[in-house]
Amino acid sequence: MKTLIRHFLLSVSILLVLNIAVIFYLAKKTSRRKAYFTFEREALQEKINTINNRLKNSGDIYNALGQKIIRYDNLKNITQELSQSLSLDTICQDIAEFTFSLIASNKGTCLLYLIDTKNQNLSLFASRKENKELVIKAKEGDIFDRWVLRHASALLVEDISKDFRFDLEKIQEEHLRPFYSLISAPLISQDKMLGIIRLDSMETAGYTQDDLRFLTTISELGAVALENATLFQRTQELAIKDSLTALYTKGYFMDRLAEEFKRSVYQNVPLALLMIDIDHFKEYNDKFGHTAGDIILKEISFLISNFLKKQHTISCRFGGEEFCLLLCEVDKKSAVKHADELRALIEEKKIVLRRQKMNVTVSIGIAAFPQDCRNEEELVYNADSALYQAKQKGRNKAVGF
Ligand code: GH3
Ligand code: MG
Ligand code: MG
């Protein structure tokens, strides 16, 4: 019996050990599998992340491409719009409008400067602002615009406070309005610098290289349109301006006189005409030569065209050494007074002819609406008669009709 019990216990023990071994084996196998699955899951997750990233990048590229297509599609409209106008002002407004809406989405500020040919300085011509209250202090450009002008190349500044090329103190001196980033491109046509188009933003890194590339494309198209408009304007001016004195020609003046006369009648305002003739001009020609005569004509024209600048005046070269000055909304009494001031101004001016200082004089005849005439022809005729009287009275005189 005892042996039986011992055998039984041994069998049970063996069974128990076997069971434990099986359980241990199974547990180990399960944990290895678990580790394997965890590893697999992580690998899969990584693959999913990579695919997601690729999808996101593709989405970004897709969006960027979409934006590019929209932008470049708009270039067609810009080209069309710009080629339809020959007015400098309209073209500048159009360039600023396109740039502001297409690149900046109407955020920040867009400024367009043209080079003033007289002093070679930049001069603000058109602007678009997100904040309408903003004051543009730098009407002749700032440190960034001068950089673009000097280098004749486009500029991207992501953060003005961190760009070593520009002195922050100077920037703050020049501006009332804050901005942190900008892009700017020169307007160049046939190697000639015409101006600058620029965008600035209240955010740092407000523009990308792609924005700059697009701005450069717009500036190239804009520059061609501006050059055409300038040439057209110059051609028009040549037709209406006398080449020696830069005063209006007689034909153009007569058209303007007719307009102003009509306006005076409708609005019941006075209008006065000064007919000016250089005294003994032929003698200067004979003594000093024709070129010296031309110098006199230029000097006197300059004085006439700049006289009473604050008032509405129109001046012209009426004939050889004869000029007209129309004083709009000026009555006869004031006109006679002004004519004598002009006469004295010319008399006092020293004109150098062959190293000799000369005092050239003029005679002036004055006629005015309403008392002296019923139409513009009578106005001219009567001013001329008054001029004849001024000559009769001994020259260097201003005489009213
Ligand atoms: P008066 O005081 O009576 O006006 O005498 P004047 O000598 O000024 O007048 P006149 O009509 O005898 O002479 C005008 C001269 O102007 C004759 C002409 O040769 C000259 N003249 C006309 N156009 C030009 C020009 O473009 N350049 C030059 N240098 N002379 C001109
Ligand atoms: Mg004369
Ligand atoms: Mg004359």
How is this structure best described in words?
- The chain has 401 residues and is of the alpha+beta class.
- It folds into two domains: 82-235, GAF domain (Beta-Lactamase); 250-400, Reverse transcriptase/Diguanylate cyclase domain (Alpha-Beta Plaits), CATH 3.30.70.270.
- It has helices spanning 2-83, 88-102, 143-151, 168-174, 209-240, 250-267, 281-288, 290-305, 332-348, 376-392; strands spanning 109-115, 122-129, 155-157, 181-189, 192-201, 271-278, 313-319, 322-328, 350-353, 356-359, 362-369, 398-400.
- The relative contact order is 0.07.
- The model has no long low-confidence stretch (mean pLDDT 92).
- It binds 3'-deoxy-guanosine-5'-triphosphate (GH3) and magnesium ion (MG) (2 copies).
- One magnesium ion is lined by residues 277, 321-322.
What's the quick description here?
This protein has 401 residues and is an alpha+beta fold. It has helices spanning 2-83, 88-102, 143-151, 168-174, 209-240, 250-267, 281-288, 290-305, 332-348, 376-392, and strands at 109-115, 122-129, 155-157, 181-189, 192-201, 271-278, 313-319, 322-328, 350-353, 356-359, 362-369, 398-400.
SSE diagram, text form:
Elements: H1 2-83, H2 88-102, E1 109-115, E2 122-129, H3 143-151, E3 155-157, H4 168-174, E4 181-189, E5 192-201, H5 209-240, H6 250-267, E6 271-278, H7 281-288, H8 290-305, E7 313-319, E8 322-328, H9 332-348, E9 350-353, E10 356-359, E11 362-369, H10 376-392, E12 398-400
Parallel strand pairs: 11-12
Antiparallel strand pairs: 1-2, 1-5, 3-4, 4-5, 6-8, 6-11, 7-8, 9-10
Helix pairs in contact: 1-2, 1-5, 2-5, 7-8
The structure holds 3'-deoxy-guanosine-5'-triphosphate and magnesium ion (MG) (2 copies).
